Amino acid sequence: MSCGEPHETDCSEVLDHLYEFLDSEMPDVDRDKFQHHFEECSPCLEKYGLEQAVKKLVKRCCGHDDVPADLRAKVMGRIDLIRSGQTVPEHDVTRAPAAPQES
């Protein structure tokens, strides 16, 4: 999407990194560029407002579900393995082991 107007920061760059902006996961200098872009580009500002509203709605409707403790432990264990450079098992560590079959 582009509004057709020239900007210091291109509309496609802004929209490609919109969630990083929404989640405050970008350097301040980039946030400032994006904020300036939104001030001069109404189509991108509209898209930003829409995505912000959707994000708030999802948080309100789904943000209260607790993650099961065993799943959290398995995921954190896998993250620790990856960070330490160890080999990560190919099987799905989030699934319970299959029950042994009787012969």
Q: How is this fold's topology laid out?
A:
Elements: H1 11-16, H2 18-22, H3 28-40, H4 42-62, H5 69-84
Helix pairs in contact: 3-4
Quick recap:
The chain has about 100 residues and is mostly helical. About 60% of the residues lie in helices and about 0% in strands. This is Mycothiol system anti-sigma-R factor.
Task: Describe it.
The chain has helices at residues 11-16, 18-22, 28-40, 42-62, 69-84. It is elongated, with a radius of gyration of 21 Å. It is built from 5 helices and no strands. The longest helix is centred in the middle third of the chain and has 21 residues, at 42-62. Helices cover 59% and strands 0% of the residues. With 103 residues, the protein is an all-alpha fold. The mean pLDDT is 82. Helix 3 (28-40) packs across helix 4.
Keywords:
103 residues; mainly alpha; elongated
Mean pLDDT: 82
Percent of residues in helical segments? 55-70%
Rg is 21 Å
**How many strands appear in the DSSP assignment?**
0
Strand content: under 5%
Which stretches are low in confidence, meaning pLDDT under 50 for 5 or more residues running?
A: none
What overall form do the CA principal axes indicate?
elongated
SS-based class: mainly alpha
What is the N-to-C order of secondary-structure elements (H for helix, E for strand)?
HHHHH
The major β-sheet equals:
none
| Number of DSSP helical runs | 5
How many angstroms does the end-to-end distance come to?
A: 61 Å
